[in-house]
Amino acid sequence: MSRSLRFFLAIVLVLISAMAGAYIGVRYAVSNLISSDNQTAVVIDAQTQQTQSNQIIVSSSEISTIVTDVVQTVEPAVVTVIGNIPGQRTFFGFTGDQQVSGSGFIISGDGYIITNNHVIEGVDDVMVILSDGSEVPAAIVSTDIFADLAVLKIDSKVPAIAVMGDSDNLKLGETVVAIGSPLGDFRNSVTTGVISATGRTIDTGQGYEMENLLQTDAAINSGNSGGPLVNLAGEVVGVNTLVLRDNSSGASAEGLGFAIPSNTALLISNQIIEKGYFARPYLGVQVQHIDPAAAIRYDLPVEWGAFVVKVGGNTPAGRAGVEAGDIIVRIGDAVLDEDTIFLNALFTYQPGDVVDVEVIRSGSRAVLQVTLIEYR
């Protein structure tokens, strides 16, 4: 091979090598560029997914709250009470029948219902409307006018039973729910509020006072009477009974609703169910409940008891020597404490029972013997 031919072949080989190297370099660069783009795309996609995961998704599903859960639990046991007051002949002629209404709630599988005495007072027949809208006749078992309580009974199957709670454990400011049928038309309406006070005394204007009432700002209207006042555990802690909208000075007021404590209602209703009536023992004192908070505030010598505000003339307490300013700490075997308040201790006895009443007076203890009578 000539020298010129060898030189020519060498140049061709160099050119081919250069072209191959360029091709490989371009492929490598393009490959890196595509890989980089893919990584960027992955990062962007990940950021997009992260952004989507941080979004707040609003669902159209029903939002459940404690109050709605409480209502759903208790509402099936709430009833509307309808009574008929027969017409009467008066100087101006014969008056027609009058229909009255209120509320109540079922407390047993046997069909016993608690309501207010004033809801069924004077009626000749009673009908209750259950939560499903069905109407069934009800019989009046008995009543206690002084506590404004009545027990009814139905013979039909009950849709639900209300759970009774311990009203002595209520705290001021605790949230409560009132359920009832205001005006008789708006069945099982719900209002909410708080416990404004406990141990309230209200003059009924009929010669006696209602004692140890719960005060609440939950709206209570005509027709709510007899309905349950419920805590956030779904337990009945009171029986709605009345509302004050003005006072003797003529000033208007709102949010002054009152309920009978569940412990009192349960004690009276249990005796009515067992015996067919409630014989209320009478001591003849007006008292104020003492708890640790009151004891600290007023520097009292005991944490639990009943401070005697007033002693009625010619009453069992008055004849036994109980005085205003005494602190009652025991009635018979029942010691007044966190679990036993004055009325609960008193109501464990019957009219005619002779019981020892232990009082603290001027720092000393005294035991007075009292013969209870029936409240008339």
Describe the structure.
By secondary structure, this protein is α+β, with helices and mostly antiparallel strands. It has four domains: 1-30; 68-153, Trypsin-like serine proteases (Thrombin, subunit H); 164-265, Beta Barrel (Thrombin, subunit H); 279-374, Pdz3 Domain, CATH 2.30.42. It has helices at 3-53, 66-74, 117-120, 262-275, 292-298, 316-320, 342-346, and strands spanning 78-85, 89-90, 93-94, 98-106, 112-115, 125-129, 135-144, 149-153, 163-164, 175-180, 189-203, 209-216, 228-231, 235-246, 252-261, 281-282, 285-290, 305-311, 327-331, 334-335, 354-361, 364-371, 373-374. It has a six-stranded antiparallel β-barrel with strand order 1-4-5-8-7-6. The chain is globular, with a radius of gyration of 38 Å. The relative contact order is 0.10.
How far apart are the first and last residues' alpha carbons, in Å?
A: 147 Å
Secondary-structure arrangement, i.e. CATH architecture of the largest domain: Beta Barrel
What's the structural domain tally?
A: 4
Shape: globular
Index terms:
376 residues, 7 helices, Thrombin, subunit H, 6-stranded antiparallel barrel, alpha+beta, globular, 23 strands, 6-stranded antiparallel beta barrel
Question: Can I get a quick summary?
Answer:
This protein is an alpha+beta fold and 376 residues long. 25% of the residues lie in helices and 38% in strands.
Helices and strands in order:
Layout: H1 3-53, H2 66-74, E1 78-85, E2 89-90, E3 93-94, E4 98-106, E5 112-115, H3 117-120, E6 125-129, E7 135-144, E8 149-153, E9 163-164, E10 175-180, E11 189-203, E12 209-216, E13 228-231, E14 235-246, E15 252-261, H4 262-275, E16 281-282, E17 285-290, H5 292-298, E18 305-311, H6 316-320, E19 327-331, E20 334-335, H7 342-346, E21 354-361, E22 364-371, E23 373-374
Parallel strand pairs: 9-14
Antiparallel strand pairs: 1-4, 1-6, 2-3, 4-5, 5-8, 6-7, 7-8, 10-11, 10-13, 11-12, 12-15, 13-14, 14-15, 16-23, 17-18, 18-19, 19-20, 19-21, 21-22
